[in-house]
Design goal:
The complex is a heterodimer of chains A (259) and B (156).
Chain A lengths: L1 H35 L3 H40 L6 H39 L2 H7 L4 H39 L4 H11 L2 H28 L5 H31 L2
Chain B lengths: L1 H28 L10 E8 L10 E4 L2 E12 L4 E9 L10 E6 L6 E6 L11 E3 L1 E3 L4 H17 L1
Parallel strand pairs in B: 1-7, 2-6, 5-8
Antiparallel strand pairs in B: 1-4, 2-3, 3-4, 5-6
Classes of the chains: A mainly alpha (259), B alpha/beta (156).
């Protein structure tokens, strides 16, 4: 009993300490962004490894998600004789939810885990301490460029995902199943609002990008510097990112779309 | 050096395609391009009952969309619904005796305001009022009346 209470107290304390370290880390990383701007090369390299290398998985997933939405939407909507509204269904679900959320989950799996492993290994091989010895702040030099690249890439990737998905839905809907192409686009245009749907979707993806990069970088930076520690940190990145993204999505949806 | 410049090009392509995706969403998917509020004028109409009309519902004439509903409010003095509509400047030649009615697109579709042009020589101006209005047909009410009527006929 006593042991249980002791463990409970210890675990609570450890998790609060970790949250505190994470917040301080976030503040340091954000303030370090100023130092990235005079060195665009650092940012560019990270945009390449975070954004460009995620491009393929995002566009292909977007295409397939859009195609599945087109199929499923058609089956359901044709029961009610409302196949013409397929475009609205595909576009609304992509722009509001699936675009930002699925992109963020893929982003956490593709780019987030790579970031954690990279930084964890840098720590394990004492590259970070080496930098400190040379009076180079590893947060400014290593973390901040990755952080900035992460949340600049996310909205772009999410927009691509939604755009490709809408086209995929149209390919299946009007190419395969015979929904009128004009109705698909005009219904979509009449019912999707720029402010309410698209801008809110972009805001969501920025928030997710911010959170996913923060978790990935912090887990790497905070990892126990052994091979086991790095592998655990990588797992935690994917799990925690998924939880935070889905939880935040609920909160953001409740805030944004309630009339 | 060759390597970095291909990397730059790829990052550039990535950013450009992301922005192109955003533009595609804004212009092709959403209603941003179809109607802007800058080049429009406002008219108001009072309805006894505006039914399920909502802000951003369509305002059309002869079946063509010419504007949208800007605001709906309740007048506590006359117990009427005051509907403010913004209409595209291109269609500034609506006569001032135009009739406004709330119609439903299809049996279960959205409600919209239909404007039937009258025969007056004077045109509606910005801030003008439409005097002749027809209320929305409330399906439950119409059904209730019909059922009541047929029940009364059976009793005879």
């Amino acid at each position: 009993m006593i042991e249980f209470l002791q463990n409970l107290g210890k675990n609570t304390r450890t998790s609060f300490t970790k949250l505190g370290r994470g917040t301080i880390f976030l503040l340091q990383a954000t303030s370090g962004i100023v130092n990235v701007l005079p060195r665009p090369r650092l940012l560019l390299n990270q945009m390449y490894s975070i954004g460009v290398l995620s491009f393929l998985i995002i566009t292909i997933s977007g295409l397939f998600v859009g195609m599945v939405l087109g199929l499923q939407g058609y089956y359901i909507l044709s029961d009610f004789g409302a196949e013409e509204t397929l475009g609205v269904m595909v576009a609304a679900s992509l722009v509001r939810e699936l675009g930002p959320v699925v992109t963020a989950l893929l982003f956490a799996g593709r780019a987030g885990s790579a970031l954690t492993a990279e930084i964890g290994l840098m720590k394990a091989t004492e590259q970070l301490s080496g930098m400190e010895m040379m009076a180079v702040d590893p947060i400014k030099r290593i973390i901040s460029p990755r952080f900035l690249a992460g949340f600049l890439s996310m909205p772009l990737l999410a927009a691509l995902f939604s755009a490709v998905g809408v086209i995929g839905g149209q390919m299946v809907g009007s190419g395969l199943l015979g929904v009128d192409e004009g109705a698909y686009w005009s219904q979509m245009r009449a019912n999707i609002d720029f402010q309410d749907d698209i801008v809110n979707g972009v805001i969501k993806s920025i928030v997710f990008g911010f959170v996913a990069s923060w978790i990935a970088l912090f887990e790497g930076y905070d990892a126990i510097p052994t091979s086991e520690g790095v592998s655990r940190a990588t797992t935690r990145t994917v799990v925690n990112s998924a939880f935070s993204i889905l939880g935040l999505d609920f909160i953001l949806t409740a805030l944004m779309f309630g009339d | 050096m060759q390597h970095t410049s291909t990397q730059d090009t790829l990052v550039g392509l990535f950013v450009a395609s992301g922005i192109a995706g955003l533009f595609f969403l804004a212009l092709q998917v959403s209603n941003l391009s179809s109607f802007t509020e800058h080049d429009s004028y406002t008219v108001t109409a009072r309805f006894e009952n505006s039914g399920g009309l909502k802000v951003k519902s369509a305002v059309s004439s002869a079946g063509v969309k010419i504007g949208q509903v800007k605001a709906i409010s309740f007048d506590p003095k006359s117990y009427e619904s005051v509907v403010e509509m913004s209409i595209d400047k291109r269609y500034s030649t609506l006569p001032d005796d135009t009739t406004a009615s709330v119609y439903t697109a299809g049996l279960l579709g959205e409600q919209y305001v239909n404007l039937d042009a009258g025969g007056s020589d004077e045109y509606l101006k910005d801030g003008g009022k439409i005097d002749v209005t027809n209320s929305a047909i409330i399906l439950e009410k119409a059904l209730g009346q019909f059922l009541f009527k047929s029940a009364a006929e059976e009793k005879k």
